[in-house]
Amino acid sequence: MVGGPLCESGDIFTQREGGYVDSRELPAPRVGDFIVLENAGAYGFVMASNYNSKTRAAEVLIENGEAKLIRQREQFEDLIRGEIIPE
Q1: Residue 75 DSSP SS3
Q2: In this structure, is the dihedral angle defined by the CA atoms of residues 77, 67, 40 and 11, taken in order, positive or negative?
Q3: What integer pLDDT is reported at residue 86 of this predicted model?
Q4: Quick one: which H or E segment has residue 79?
Q5: What is the largest CA-CA distance in the chain?
Q6: Cα–chain-centroid distance for residue 15?
Q7: Is 32 left (phi over 0), alpha (psi -120 to 50) or beta?
Q8: What does the alpha-carbon distance between residue 46 and residue 32 come to, in Å, rounded to a whole number?
Q9: Closest Cα partner for 62 from 44, 41, 35, 40?
Q10: What secondary structure does DSSP assign to 8-50, as a single string?
Q11: What is the pLDDT of residue 28?
């Protein structure tokens, strides 16, 4: 099973057109392995949010087999930067 820290019951990464769900065997991941979701839908940055006060993950571009950081992982301070507590 592939899932993240906040997966909802409707989060299915093996759904085909028409709503059909495929079961897929995956090799056991090892440290340093990548899992690539070609079409991430709302999991891509364009639809990302801080749902449940979670910071957004870093974005990495794989180019010619080399990983390149293109957006840094958010920190807690990024979540509260614009907040103001009135007196």
Answers
A1: coil
A2: negative
A3: 94
A4: helix 76-80
A5: 56
A6: 17
A7: left
A8: 26
A9: 35
A10: -TT--TTBPGGG-B-----PPP-TT-----S--GGGSGGG---
A11: 87
* 59: β partners: 71
Instruction: Convert the pLDDT of each residue in 30-79 to its tens digit.
Output: 888 877 776 665 566 777 778 778 888 888 888 998 989 999 999 999 99
Catalytic residue, chosen from 7, 21, 60, 67, is: 7
Q: How far apart are CA 64 and CA 11, in angstroms?
A: 30
Is 74 an annotated catalytic residue? no
Find the angle CA(6)-CA(24)-CA(37) to the nearest 5 degrees.
Answer: 50
Q: Which of 10, 27, 28 is nearest to 19 (CA)?
A: 10
Please tell me whether residue 63 adopts helix, strand or coil conformation.
strand
Contact 59, 48 (CB under 8 A): no
Q: Is the pTM of this model over 0.70?
A: no
